[in-house]
Amino acid sequence: MSETTLDDRGRLTLPKEMRERYGEHYHVIDLHDGIKLIPIAEDPLDALRDEFADVEKTADEIRESAREASLDEAGR
Known about the structure:
Blueprint: H1 16-22, E1 26-31, E2 34-39, H2 44-51, H3 59-74
Antiparallel strand pairs: 1-2
């Protein structure tokens, strides 16, 4: 855990280790008890490809499977 403060212009500086690990672009999420920083990949398309590299089904197969599960859960 690290600690940082805002400067007089409202800027927040993250420690170098965090910037190196997570990058320099973030979504800022306003929560009821604080904020959350979500890193944004430099190339979001590459990040998606990496995330789903081991998925062997097509998008249509995944969609159909989700549809079937929803219908089953709803008690067809």
